[in-house]
Amino acid sequence: MTASAGSYNFREIEAKWQAYWLADKTFRTPNPGEPGFDAARPKFYVLDMFPYPSGVGLHVGHPLGYIATDIYARYKRMRGFNVLHPMGYDAFGLPAEQYAVEHGVPPRETTRRNIDNMRAQMQRLGLGYDWDREIATTDAGYYRWTQWIFLQLYNSWYDPAADAARPISELVHKLEQEHLVVNFDGEPVAVSSPGLQEWYGLPPGTQRWSELTVEQRRAVLDGQRLAYLDEVPVNWCPALGTVLANEEVTNEGRSERGNHPVFRRPMRQWMLRITRYADRLERDLDLVDWPEPIKLMQRNWIGRSEGAEVDFAVADRDEVIRVYTTRPDTLFGATYMVLAPEHDLVEALTSDAQRQTVRKYVEIARNRSDLERTVETKEKTGVFTGAYAINPVNGERIPIWVADYVLMGYGTGAIMAVPAHDTRDFEFATRFHLPIVQVVQPPAGQDWRGYTGEGVAVNSGEFNGLTTPEFKKRIIAWLEEQGLGTGRVNYKLRDWLFSRQRYWGEPFPIVHDAATGEVFPLHEDELPVLLPQIEDFRPRASDDPDALPEPPLGRAEQWVKVRGYVDETGSVRTLLPDEVPPPGETRSSAGGQGGRVVREFRRELNTMPQWAGSCWYYLRFIDPHDDNALVDTALEHYWMVSLKADGTPHAGGVDLYVGGAEHAVLHLLYARFWHKVLFDLGCVSTPEPFGRLFNQGYIQAHAYQDARGIYVDVRDVQEVQKGAATVYVRKSTGEPLTRGLGKMGKSLKNAISPDEICRDYGTDTLRAYEMYMGPLEASKPWSTRDIIGMSRFLNAVWRRFVAEDGALKVTDDPPSEEVRRLLHKTIRRVTHDLEGLRFNTAIAALIELTNALRADRMAREVADAFLRLLSPIAPHLAEELWQRLLGPAWRRSIALESWPEYDEALALDPEVEIPVQINGKVRSRVRLPAGDAGDQDKLRSAALADAKIIEELDGMSVKKVICVPGRMVNVVASV
RNA sequence: GCCGAAGUGGCGGAAUCGGCAGACGCGCGGGUUUCAAAAACCCGUCCACGCAAGUGGGUGAGGGUUCGAGUCCCUCCUUCGGCACCA
């Protein structure tokens, strides 16, 4: 297609203005203190979820959110805000690496190329970012600070007394001062009266810090650090050669990326103690303006539940099994217990008679993947241990079973089974013929068997007759009195598995003592730890589930070896080959005092996961080139802190964050976690990173399948009219195809490139079309056929301004009253619609105005305001017409001009038409002056005086007249 | 199974608060212009009956609240998204 006689030359105009914006730095946003900064303007931070520069190229679905934020940022700038609107690249991680593997080029190289390509694509879309703030998570100047944040996590603990993260040195101090002692589990616990322990003694089972060995101290601290190494069951994906986070594994037990099988294996990995923040992450959702469904998804993921821990004594043995239950009110109905196969007590409790059976069962259960466990949920399995427990409320002996429907990772890994009122226990008890005792009376008409709702207690001794919530309170109090249990809150959230056996990620700022294996953080002056260049960066993939991970960084032999010493903060500083350490002390918090000794270390070989870099990028945009801090405190405060209308601080910094809902529980949860840690440590000013979140919908597209169900490329599909019906056939062969609707992308072979659309119709047309398709939050189908409508609209705008000979059609005469009224109505509509991100209706309003201007020579007053309204949506066209409109007086981009104001008085119709209904059906209309339409009495008399209404009401009696000022009249009448 | 979102013409969608259902665009039908075509412009376009004025019906299905329901409440159906043995 070529530009036809009826179209303006969008190609020339768009290229001209894109070049101008770059050269002029039109969208550069000065920080406070920089030249051009205007302190009188309020700030507004608009952020996109930055892309992975994956290299397969964008399709028209990708820029949907970017176009929306671009329009909004331009609008806010014109409204007088200092707008921060940056863009960058989340360039570490699997997609970039896999692309590099497929094309046999180092990831560093492909990433650079992909970024260049993506930047060019975004610039062709006319997106007005401040390119001076561009960042990539793969730049050493960026990941230096990702590593720095990791050091803060490593060197911090969560202080329950402060309900916040604190430097680990404070924990050491508290232990040294004996405000805290260490309990049997290695947990620091508070001492009620420090200093008086000489008289009262330590709490039972606790030890003083001074009594611990260096190894024990180290274990205590490692047990509190927010970043720690642990041997945990992880999701091991041999095909990818790496472990994955729970969030990266599908519920079929396969990798989110690549759909490879995933196995659970215990491995020593880096973990982040996000569980300590479960409560705050859940609670602070109340502070943010996010879509409710997204908040709910986070709440479900965190999975807070309230209940109790109860101790069951094992019959004839000196053992106790602790269980967690959300229904302590059903204790009297507990007729057996179940331990998870991995539970510590399984081996000890099993009777000799049952030993073979139990061992076999545990062995099988351990090797079952998540996939197998899920598929086999239909039939519950389990074996009896031969041991019995005592139900603490009624003294009954109940059998202890082992079954894999109980998970080790949740609660205590053991449950009391109440088959009468729990679906799973009911299934299990039915299968294995275990007793089922009713303890809850459901509402009338419902069967008690398997009833899990609330009701009234029965068969529960002295508690009979209590309602479920009341019973819960009473029984928890009773258990606490008896020392048998406590009320307890539990979360489904697990600690975050933070290491990957990949090349293309941030190296950890961690070294291991080459002789002892002891772990040390590097001193922050040692950052960045540069990712070494290696020949073979491929992960070791395997089909064998028992294969062991082999981090590619292990191949960088020179890089791995570090010579250095431990300094007085416990951090490692490196030395050059012949360098000697400066004089001073070595002193780690766990002990080990002494002079500085040169040691050999080996670097940590794992790298950080994809999510690390995206956890804090919104902070770096504020101050992207700072070498002294991850973000300057004053600048962070300026861009992140905003006040509500009543003057109180808003919860979070970014004023508008737009992205897809697919990040509801991954990126958005991780980023909130890191932000809260940084908040606790005084690095940021707000409790939440993103004050307002908006989820854009997907662009869907028709996808076509042949008879075998194979997808056929959309470009090979032809639409054929067969009588009344439309059928779809393959162009090349003519075979019939079936049509479906799905997310646009490579797999459905239905992707459409924005470059193609820009070439044929222009960037402004593409922008306007994507915004016009429907509400931003909705998913809606792409239709190339419909684009012509936006193309016609923008051409019509051009023709309103420019005559065939190129002369401007604008006059200095004032517009007619009607046109001026319509203009002010349009300004009002567009302003409100853009403010509410309702771009589709804003464009409709502009089309209506354009259509109404048809016969007029355009008045300058109208032209001026119209171009300002149009400019965020179709910036190239608006810039060009703006420059022509101002002529020699033109000085700068329309993006820097102000937003037009509307005048309510000028927008007001002098006369309005009011529908008059009889019994809810419109029977007539009356015209009356605008002032009278707001007056109930005048409305009423006008309606009742209308000839048509009088005629219709003949023979009826009027019961009531309802007058809605300015809207309508309804006469209620009967025969 | 549980949780969430959404169902409006041939299609995408519009309808701040419960107040004229279908704005705006696509498509389609008719016309102007043209040697012709494209583009552009004008008229029409929810369905049924009617030449028309008009009358009746209509927002996934059924019920309810109300002077009045696309909008609120209850039950059900369909589609999409999330979670999935979390005790």
Account of the 3D structure:
The structure is a single chain. This protein is of the alpha+beta class. The chain contains 31 helices and 44 strands. The relative contact order is 0.11. It binds one RNA strand of 87 nucleotides through helix 10, strand 13, strand 17, helix 14 and strand 38.
Average predicted local confidence, pLDDT: 89
Report the count of strand segments: 44
Number of helices: 31
Residue runs with pLDDT of under 50 for 5 or more positions: 1-5
**Helical fraction:** 25-40%
Q: Specify the structural class.
A: alpha+beta
**How many angstroms separate the termini?**
66 Å
Largest pleated sheet = 7 strands, mixed
What is the CA-atom radius of gyration, in angstroms? 35 Å
The geometry reads as globular
User: What fraction of the residues are assigned to beta strands by DSSP?
Assistant: 15-25%
Which oligomeric state applies?
Answer: single chain
List the helices and strands and how they pair.
Blueprint: H1 10-24, E1 43-48, H2 64-78, E2 82-84, E3 88-89, H3 94-103, H4 107-124, E4 135-136, H5 140-154, E5 156-159, E6 164-167, H6 168-176, E7 180-182, E8 188-190, H7 197-200, H8 214-222, E9 227-237, E10 242-244, E11 263-272, H9 278-283, H10 292-302, E12 305-314, E13 320-325, E14 336-339, H11 346-349, H12 355-367, H13 370-375, E15 383-390, E16 397-402, E17 414-417, H14 423-432, E18 440-441, E19 456-457, H15 468-482, E20 485-490, E21 496-497, E22 510-513, E23 519-521, H16 557-560, E24 561-566, E25 572-574, E26 585-588, E27 591-595, E28 599-603, H17 611-614, H18 617-620, H19 633-640, E29 652-654, E30 656-659, H20 667-680, E31 688-690, E32 693-695, E33 699-705, E34 711-712, E35 717-722, E36 725-730, E37 736-743, H21 754-761, H22 763-772, E38 780-781, H23 787-801, E39 810-811, H24 817-835, H25 839-852, E40 858-859, H26 860-870, H27 875-886, H28 904-907, E41 911-918, E42 921-929, H29 930-933, H30 936-945, H31 947-952, E43 957-964, E44 968-974
Parallel strand pairs: 1-2, 1-30, 3-4, 14-16, 29-31, 30-32, 33-38, 39-40, 41-44
Antiparallel strand pairs: 5-6, 7-8, 9-10, 9-11, 11-21, 12-13, 12-15, 12-20, 14-17, 15-16, 18-19, 22-23, 22-28, 24-25, 24-28, 26-27, 33-34, 33-37, 35-36, 36-37, 41-42, 43-44
Helix pairs in contact: 1-27, 3-4, 21-22, 22-23, 24-25, 24-26, 26-27
The chain binds one RNA strand of 87 nucleotides through α10, β13, β17, α14 and β38.
